[in-house]
């Protein structure tokens, strides 16, 4: 199993909801496209907060042994891109 924590920008309820929804869509799309690598559907555990106050969403992937490059490559790029779109504009 491979776990990916994605830091959520912002602190409002709408941003948390949008981030969780976007990450769920990305994780499920990856499973649909790569069923041979992702053994079962990913688990999105929803929004959490660290003791330091940072918000994140945890996603658990069950990956075939030796196939972690999917998580560290294209999937990570998609996750980072989706969360950057949610960052507040200054």
What can you see in these coordinates?
With 90 residues, the protein is of the alpha+beta class. It is 43% helix and 22% strand. The chain has one domain: 2-Layer Sandwich (Alpha-Beta Plaits). It has helices at residues 13-33, 69-86, and strands at 2-7, 43-49, 55-61. A 3-stranded antiparallel beta sheet has the order 1-3-2, covered by helices on one side. The longest helix is centred in the first third of the chain and has 21 residues, at 13-33.
CATH fold category name? Alpha-Beta Plaits
User: Order of strands across the biggest sheet?
Assistant: 1-3-2
Distance between the termini: 38 Å
Oligomer: single chain
CATH class: Alpha Beta
- Mean pLDDT over the full residue set: 88
* Total beta strands: 3
Supply Rg: 13 Å
Strand content: 15-25%
- Please work out how many helical segments DSSP would assign: 2
Could you give the order of the helices and strands?
EHEEH
Find the structural class using helix and strand composition. Answer: alpha+beta
Characterize the overall form: elongated
**Largest sheet at a glance?**
3 strands, antiparallel
Helix percent band? 40-55%
CATH structural architecture: 2-Layer Sandwich
Q: Provide the number of structural domains.
A: 1
Q: What are the low-pLDDT stretches, counting only 5+ consecutive residues below 50?
A: none
